[in-house]
């Protein structure tokens, strides 16, 4: 027996942005504050979750490299089950739902079950982190091409990464902290110079944010020595070079 379409809830795939609650879209904030049920990732900042009303039911589906609270298939089933039971669901995801957020998989599962879905975009961590660190992903003098890649993809060493970074290009790596050594070796094996500058941005837009810089060849040591933890993003290219102190001082003054 199929559910009555009029009684089916809606799933909202909502981007929570890079961390700072002030960077939520107005629509995301409105849905979050009115939601009765929120299914959220582990990296969503607690200050954002605190915006939910006290009566809201919060379900964590946190994932890490070593441990998943729920497998993706179970998350998909949870969203469908709650919606078919007549509940509207806010599926709160770090960054943007459709940029390495598996939002596409969740939308497909909902559509297949006849559950209506809408998507509320968020500021991708690539854009939020680079802006917070004052690293321009594009620059007329340094880069006109930007590439996003996942650092935990299957068959990493078998892929051809030649041309992803280098002169005129910026490479942004999501989920690459644990595999940083392999990533650096892979890029250098595919032709990238060992002295290309890199930046690691940890806890972007949050009070504990750090920006670490060094050469590509030293990426793994940079991360290990500083004990970098997720959430963190790796940016590779000449746009990451330390900016002129005068320019930085003027930029900081303008934000006061």
How do you describe this structure in short?
InterPro entries: 4pyrrol_Mease, 4pyrrol_Methylase_sf, 4pyrrole_Mease_sub1, 4pyrrole_Mease_sub2, CobA/CysG_C, Siro_Cobalamin_biosynth, Uropor_MeTrfase_CS. β2, α2 (46-49) and β3 form a beta-alpha-beta unit.
What does this molecule look like?
The chain has 256 residues and is of the alpha/beta class. It has 2 domains: 5-122, Cobalt-precorrin-4 Transmethylase, domain 1 (3-Layer(aba) Sandwich), CATH 3.40.1010.10; 126-240, Tetrapyrrole methylase, C-terminal domain (Methyltransferase, Cobalt-precorrin-4 Transmethylase, Domain 2, 2-Layer Sandwich), CATH 3.30.950. Helices cover 28% and strands 21% of the residues. The chain contains 8 helices and 10 strands. The strands form 2 sheets. Strands 3-2-4-1-5 form a 5-stranded parallel β-sheet, sandwiched between helices. The chain has a 5-stranded mixed β-sheet with strand order 6-7-10-8-9, with helices on both faces. The model is unreliable at 245-256 (pLDDT under 50).
